[in-house]
Amino acid sequence: MYFKHFTVISNVLLAFIFLFGPTNSYSQECYDQYKQFSSKRSVQKLNYQEDQSGSYLWVNDILVTGEEVLYKTEDIIDSLMIEPYHLIKWRANGTRTLSLGEGFSGLVPFLLSQGIEVKGLDLWYHAMDDLPANNNTVRLMREYTRNYGKHLIQGSATDIPIEDNSIDIIMAHQLLNNLDERTSREVINEAIRVIRPIEGHIRLVGLKQHSIDYLQRLQTQGRIDVKFKSVSTNHYRLDGLKVLKNVYVEIKKR
Length: 254
Prior knowledge:
The chain has helices at residues 3-20, 26-38, 73-79, 84-93, 107-113, 136-148, 181-194, 209-220; strands at residues 48-50, 57-59, 62-63, 96-100, 117-122, 152-154, 169-173, 201-208, 224-229, 235-238, 241-253. It is built from eight helices and eleven strands. The chain is globular. β4 (96-100), α5 and β5 form a beta-alpha-beta unit. It has one domain (3-253): Rossmann fold (3-Layer(aba) Sandwich), CATH 3.40.50. α1 runs parallel beside α4 (84-93) and α7 (181-194) crosses α8. The strands form two sheets. Strands 4, 5, 6, 7, 8, 9, 10 and 11 form an eight-stranded mixed beta sheet that branches. A three-stranded antiparallel beta sheet has the order 1-2-3, with no helix packed on it. By secondary structure, it is of the alpha/beta class.
């Protein structure tokens, strides 16, 4: 809703923060931490599949999406409920942000343009030697990694190569909707492990009912606090299961 006003509003306020706001070493510290822990986790073998037209690509049976494939940046920003005042606050606080299943979407570039410390995580980053050469999605993937490679982590959301309690905000847009129940639980558990207690939070969009049930169970157990927002009946079916497309979930670890 407010995406079109982000650039003007945010840049004016960000300029004020750069000139008069507090300084810190968050950026270098965060980069060093990612670099250190990324080397400690192994990435599973990757299998690539493309459609007959050479337009789409699947990595380990999950469709790779990005700015020109399925989603637009403004839609991602809106569905994750990111407002201008969030950007100003995150920049001022040196907030450490992680996007799971980032693909080649516009989220990481947008947050970087707003002065936010952010990393994207996906299986195929920095491992593109075996990709089909003439696939349109592959072309976009290569361009994305050339432009933003130092902000991208190769890894699985089920085994995030980052230490416990170290990230302020984790976002995942239309990731869990691609996963079965067991894998979804693993991703949720990993996000909870990595996020900072109390101050940090997780933003999820696109969940199957079993993920919602699991989050509610964790809340009952006293592990997390969950807020369901923007809930609607708008949905689609994937693998025979209903995916609640417009459900936004915000999670805090106790």
